[in-house]
Amino acid sequence: MGQHKNKPNNSKKKPNGLRKRLNSASNMTVMLIAGVISIELLYLLIQYFPKWISLTDKVQESAGYWNFLIVLISVPVALVVWHFRDENNRQQIENQRKDINLKEFQKLSEWVSGAHLPEIKTVNKTTNKRNLKSNDELARLLTLPIEYTTEETEEYSKKPETTDFDTFSKWDGAVALQISAIYNLLPFFRGDYGESFRRPAFNLLKSAWQAMQQDSLKKLEKKNLSDEAWKDIIDELQQKARSPMGVALTHVLLSLNQENKQLSLRDFPEMLSNICLAGMNFHLNVVSEIARDKGLSNLDLRGADFRGIVLIGAKLQGCRLTGAKLDGANLWAATLQNIHLVGTDLQNAVLIDANLQNADLSYANLQYANLKNADLSSANLKACKFGWEKLKDNGQLSSAEITIYDFIKRIYPDWKKENDPEWEVLTDEEQKKTMKKFCNETGMLIFDKSGTQIMPPPLESKT
């Protein structure tokens, strides 16, 4: 199934204007019109060519004369009948092509889902060793635990140990067929065989990706994971994405449309919320420059699972990533201007040199994220979980917004000098001076619970 036998839809000629009008009208209407044209043609012959009608009796008695006249008059009706036959044949060919495409798509779906993979069969045999001879013995033994012997055997296919040529096992062949089927889904997803296949193909592909990563994602849900265990799981996600099956799924999911101008998945914006692309690497050789650069910009990706994803230098401006999972994501030098990251999990994310200007990071989790040289100018950091030790060396915090609670709990303990008193010990006036000093040093803005800017005072910040 490497190549499809039928020509894709984009190779078919579009019907001209006359054919469109004929196709849109009912058969009865077209036949009536053709009949009227034939009558008009007969009238024109009688009116303007009377010599043809008033020929000698000898000519009029000729069969050829009448045959010619009948053919001439019936040309409109004959053309209509020919059109109907041609249209009927064309529809039959089209239906046959659709049936073939549908059967192939169904077969590919089975192979992609792994329905053809040989299963490991477990056989359990249980036998009761007791021999009960009488009712009295039965009554007595009912009060005792019954002994059972259980035997378990496994049946599975494996590569023959002695062959005259190199080969592979049935399991390996089934996996190779599964990977090949993923590649063969590309023309269906791109729309080469009609729009009706695109949505089912996309559903199948994104479900296959999630199924591939599901075991690793479940491990991440465990509580109290050590840093080493967490890193191992993220590495596992990224390793699966680099496997032959992961590369095949990446190639098709991040393929371009028929015009080679944008990702095919952009044609399904309603299906992108909560999508799982965990561990996907946008920098594999099979991914186009367009997909790497701005393939996901301005998309609604709320709730998406991008844990461990590699998006170095990607332009994600305008995206809605509210509630998305980006922990462990590599967003080195990514453009995240004006992006909605409300409540997004960015734990341990790599945001070195990232552009986060005007980004909404309220309630986001930036703990342990690498923010070296990241531009957080005018970013909303209210109620965001972050550590000052990750921000203190960042010189691009101008007009970044925090709450007074953020300053007291997340910044002041690490920002204050060693001999400075605790926050609670400071008087109201000293607290104001401390916040003002911090704002002058960093350019950040502090707001109270109601959302009113308190430091620096609004009038002072305008001057």
Write the layout of secondary structure elements.
Elements: H1 17-24, H2 27-48, H3 50-53, H4 57-60, H5 63-73, H6 75-113, E1 121-128, H7 135-141, E2 148-155, H8 170-184, H9 186-190, H10 198-220, H11 227-241, H12 244-253, H13 289-294, H14 388-391, E3 401-403, H15 404-415, H16 428-442, E4 445-447, E5 453-455, H17 458-462
Helix pairs in contact: 2-6, 6-8, 6-10, 8-12, 10-11, 10-12
Question: In a few lines, what is going on in this structure?
Answer:
The two termini are 70 Å apart.
Tell me what you see in this structure.
The protein is mainly α and 463 residues long. The protein folds into three domains: 105 residues, no CATH class; 174 residues, Pectate Lyase C-like; 65 residues, no CATH class. It is built from 17 helices and five strands. Strand 4 and strand 5 form a beta hairpin. The longest helix has 39 residues. InterPro entries: 5peptide_repeat, Pentapeptide-BTB/POZ_domain. Keywords: Membrane, Transmembrane, Transmembrane helix.
CATH architecture of the largest domain: 3 Solenoid
- Examine the coordinates and then state which fold CATH places here, giving the name of the CATH topology of the largest domain: Pectate Lyase C-like
Q: Quickly count the domains.
A: 3
Cα-to-Cα separation, first versus last residue? 70 Å
Order of helices and strands: HHHHHHEHEHHHHHHHEHHEEH
Radius of gyration: 37 Å
Protein name: Pentapeptide repeat-containing protein
Keywords: Membrane, Transmembrane, Transmembrane helix
InterPro entries: 5peptide_repeat (IPR001646), Pentapeptide-BTB/POZ_domain (IPR051082)
Transmembrane segments: 21-45, 65-84
